[in-house]
């Protein structure tokens, strides 16, 4: 077994909340390859499509190889950004990742191109073994409205059905869905779960929308209040049996708002990192620490010399440090060490009333 195949650290299997582990960066590498997208989601964080296109069109296969070889602790690679299945070299990149020894070769996708079974098979044969399909409603009316793409739901479901059919040949395949929870779909959690039952999905990940990109620009219309999301998810989970509860997970919501939920269904967004050209980070780097700096462990300039571009190494925590805030009262919360804070835009709009520090658990005698 090579070094990349070591067990992931910082996970619990005892029914408690998953822990984040010690690393500020994590062991999941996101490789951004999708310079275009065939959906047009109303809440998309990548709202500057022209800049994304220019940035990723300049990225070469050799650049991608260097990204996947720089950090020896990376044991999971996820191809993402835009719609990666539209990239002509995606299968080649997956073969490259497999040959480099990554035990998990993953894909974050809208699932539409997986509706073509020969293409889905090609990716699986290239080494793909973890697929995260973004699907945001129980039917075409809701999903297609949010993606602003007619027929997107039908194709995404067909893609999931193809993956289900191929699992006999590729038994290591794990399939998850990603449902971006917002004000327009928060009321359809159970309907979505029931609609997905025939597709043999391993886990349904419900990510609360970030008030960033298009979501931030149309926040009053799209952003569901955290308290309403927590209440809706609590009602949803209460109606599931044990097997159903084991398949659902709510992410990207402050811990203090979800104390009524069972611990195993709430957690954190897994730490990961990616590379992008120096100076092209899309978040406000001056919005975080008082001195405007972001810790060097989270944002390392000139980490890779590409063939024509020099790349920075950017951890998910850099975005959090720039976009999220805490108040002094947070230091008294039992979740302070785990919590990344609340989006600045959210508290500027609605204040701090929802966020009540949780008393740390009393020590066991």
Explain how this protein is built:
It is a single chain. Helix content is 30%, strand content 17%. With 365 residues, it is of the alpha/beta class. The protein has a single domain, classed as Alpha-Beta Barrel (TIM Barrel), CATH 3.20.20.70. Strands 7-6-5-4-3-2-1-8-10-9 form a ten-stranded mixed beta sheet. A two-stranded antiparallel sheet has the order 11-12. Strand 3, helix 4 and strand 4 form a beta-alpha-beta unit. It is globular, with a radius of gyration of 20 Å. The protein starts with 27 loop residues before the first strand and ends in a 15-residue tail after the last helix.
Topology record:
Elements: E1 28-32, H1 49-57, H2 61-67, E2 76-80, H3 90-99, E3 104-109, H4 117-126, E4 130-134, H5 140-147, H6 152-166, E5 174-181, H7 189-196, E6 203-208, H8 213-217, H9 219-222, H10 226-238, H11 242-245, E7 248-251, E8 272-277, E9 299-305, E10 310-315, H12 316-323, E11 324-325, E12 342-343, H13 344-350
Parallel strand pairs: 1-2, 1-8, 2-3, 3-4, 4-5, 5-6, 6-7
Antiparallel strand pairs: 8-10, 9-10, 11-12
